[in-house]
Design a protein that fits this description.
The chain is of the alpha/beta class and 256 residues long. The chain contains 11 helices and 10 strands. β2 and β3 form a beta hairpin. The model has no long low-confidence stretch (mean pLDDT 93).
Length: 256
C-alpha cells in the first residue's frame, strides 16, 4: 500500500481502490493528517480511470471515533484547526457522493461523529457484529459535521435520525441493520472476504453499476418524470456498447 502522510493507505488492484484509515492507536480520529490524506486519496481515486469501485475501511479496533478531540484541545486556534480539517473532509465526502464510482464501507468497533459521516458516504455498508454507531456530537457540545445531518435522515428516516441526535442513543449492528443504516452484518473473520467479493462483483460491470448508482442517488431528489428521462438517457447510452452486447449474448447463451 502507498500512503499519504501515513494516515490513509491506498491500494488499487483489479479496478478496486481500497482506502484504509491508518491511525489505529487513536481510534482513527480525524486530525489534520487524516483529513488531508483522506481528501487526497479520494480525489486521486475518483480521477483514476482504472478505478471502478472504492472501498473504505480502517485499521484497528474502531472504524473512526470522529474528530480528534485531543488535537482540538491542544490547538491554540481551535476554530482554525477545525476549519482546515472540515474543509478537507467535506470536499472528500461530497466528491464520493457525486462521483460515478460505487463506494463500499467495511466498519467495525466505534463509528462515531465524523466517522459516521465517512461510513454514510458509502453506498453499501458492511459491519462487524460488535460495531456501534454513535451520534456523539452533543456529548462534547458540538453540532453534526461530515454530512451527518444530511446523510443520516436519508439512511434511516427523518424521525429516527432526529431521535438519535437528540437522545444520544447508540445503535448496535443488529439495530443498524434493522433500520437500514447498514447493508449487511458479517462475522469479523468473514468481513474482509465478503467486501472483496462484493467489490469484485461491482468492478466486473463498471458502466452498468455506475449508471445504476447515479440513477438511484438522483432519483431521491427529482420527480418521477425526471427519473424516467434519466433512465431513458442512461439506457440509450449503454445499450449499444460492446460490454452490453457481450453480456446480453452471454445471458441468452446461459439461458439456453
Amino acid at each position: 500500500m502507498t500512503g499519504v502522510d501515513g494516515a490513509v493507505l491506498v491500494e488499487v488492484r483489479d479496478g478496486i481502490a481500497t482506502l484504509t484509515l491508518n491511525r489505529p492507536g487513536a481510534g482513527n480520529a480525524i486530525d489534520a493528517a487524516l483529513a488531508g490524506g483522506f481528501a487526497d486519496a479520494v480525489h486521486a481515486t475518483v480521477a483514476d480511470p482504472a478505478v471502478a469501485v472504492i472501498v473504505l475501511q480502517a485499521r484497528g479496533r474502531s472504524f473512526c471515533v470522529g474528530g480528534d478531540l485531543s488535537a482540538m484541545a491542544a490547538s491554540p486556534d481551535r476554530a482554525g484547526m477545525v476549519a482546515n480539517v472540515l474543509g478537507r473532509m467535506n470536499a472528500a465526502i461530497a466528491l464520493l457522493r457525486r462521483g460515478t464510482r460505487p463506494v463500499v464501507a467495511f466498519v467495525q468497533g466505534a463509528v462515531a461523529g465524523g466517522g459516521l459521516g465517512i461510513a454514510l458516504s458509502a453506498d453499501v455498508i458492511i459491519a462487524e457484529p460488535a460495531t456501534r454507531f454513535v451520534f456523539a456530537y452533543p456529548r462534547v457540545g458540538l453540532p453534526p459535521d461530515c454530512g451527518v445531518s444530511w446523510l443520516l435522515p436519508r439512511a434511516i428516516g427523518a424521525r429516527p435520525a432526529m431521535a438519535m441526535a437528540l437522545t444520544g442513543a447508540d445503535l448496535d449492528a443488529a439495530e443498524a441493520l434493522r433500520r437500514g443504516l447498514v447493508s449487511e452484518v458479517v462475522p469479523a473473520d468473514e468481513g474482509s472476504a465478503r467486501v472483496t467479493a462484493l467489490a469484485a462483483r461491482i468492478a466486473a460491470a463498471p458502466a452498468a453499476h455506475a449508471a445504476a448508482r447515479q440513477l438511484m442517488l438522483n432519483a431521491a431528489d427529482v420527480p418521477l418524470s425526471s427519473a424516467l428521462d434519466d433512465e431513458y438517457a442512461a439506457m440509450l447510452g449503454l445499450v449499444g456498447s460492446d460490454e452490453a452486447g457481450r453480456r446480453i449474448a452471454g445471458f441468452l447463451e446461459r439461458a439456453r
